[in-house]
Amino acid sequence: MSVVASLLVALVVGVSPFWLGSNRPLVWSANALAIGVVLLLASVSYWREARRYPALMLSELTVPAVLFGLGICWAGLQMIPLGSLDAGHPAWSVAAEALGRDVYSSISVNRSETLWAILRYLTAASVLFCVYVLARRVSNARIIQRTFVVLTGLMALYGLLRLSLSLDKILWFDEPDTGYLTSGFINRNSAATFLGMGSLVGLGLMFQQIRSVFQKTIGESDREGIRRLSDALAGRLGLDLVLFVLMFVALLATGSRGGISFTVIAALFMMLLYSVKASVQSRSAGGRSAWVLIILLVAVLMIGLFELSGARLVGRLLDQGFGSASRVETYVRTLEAIRDYLFLGSGLGTFQDVFTAYRLELSAGRHVWDKAHNDYLELILGLGLPAATLVMLSYVFLFYKVVRGFFVRHRDGHYSAIAAAVCVLVGLHSLVDFSLQIQANTLAFALLLGLGLAQSKSSRN
Questions:
Q1: Is the pTM here over 0.70, yes or no?
Q2: Sign of the dihedral defined by the CA atoms of residues 5, 11, 17, 18, in that order
Q3: Half-sphere exposure (CA, 13 Å, Cβ side) for 224?
Q4: Greatest Cα-to-Cα distance within the chain, rounded to the nearest angstrom
């Protein structure tokens, strides 16, 4: 039963980009229902297989779970009707005057949006916990990871086909062709985040396969080593290479400055982790030399792909740099709003409702400004600084866990390496965009982080 649950959670997350990045209320509800069913299956499977199942070691998640839970509980309190208390948002008194009747006030300026935001956060947390439980068994971890990377490869292929055929639809939804790859997403930057995560998974799998080949060639002749490498390229390593190239080329086709640049930085971070681990743990110069060779080969591959497909990115970087005047101005205005809602917040998920009063002449031709293009600022505005700090600290703690797990594990350390690199990618991209505001990205991030956490400790523990 755990195998079925593993396959289902990977399928739910893997197909989430095709529904406009799962950025619609109906899809939020469907994903929450699907993940709830999978979580129930995972719980039943663990109960039935408890004697043969690796220890869950839930104490590893206690601190981040408490920090995250306190933040979400505060979001729930923001929706509670307060009557005429001063803590309520002044917009409710304005609404009462306009309607000519009593209206219950609350800290949240838009209770329905806060409720939707809580649902999205809890869905992502459920994915992480579900994957953590299932992936404590390494066979389930392989199923989840392999299914996810194959589906992401299909998403990349679909995006490249849409781009090459200049299709003006995403499935049956009308969406004008912009000349950039978006696949199932509306926004190319959001697509870049998802494809970047997929590329990092492909890179981690390649590292694992090449490492396995090098370990088998210790003490053998160069001729035998070349034969083993050729056999690997004809098998799983070749599939991993094809998937990585497919996803990385699709990533470059998005033309996303932040998405591409931060994916490369995250890939370099992963290479650094492997290099440090090889230097610390390898007892032979040959082992260290092998890792240097692997990293050089991967670097050459990435540079070659960039040369073939990265010209548009270079042009955008030369013309516009990494930021824009309107985006910087948005940050300034958001900070002004944060100052007014510093401790209590305006309500989780209510940026669009609040920012209207602060945007003034900012991009006057744009009628809706629904994202801060900085997930951290938007979180602080919504929850208030104290609660937002708790939520962000929970992610920092999880990042520390997977980095430590990578150095502790002797086998299957690539799960933690991938999770750590994904944290770097999402953490950096969230500084300049709204990566985690799109549910498909949030679910993928939770899935990969859950895999890394589950395999940060040996299954024999």
A1: yes
A2: negative
A3: 8
A4: 88
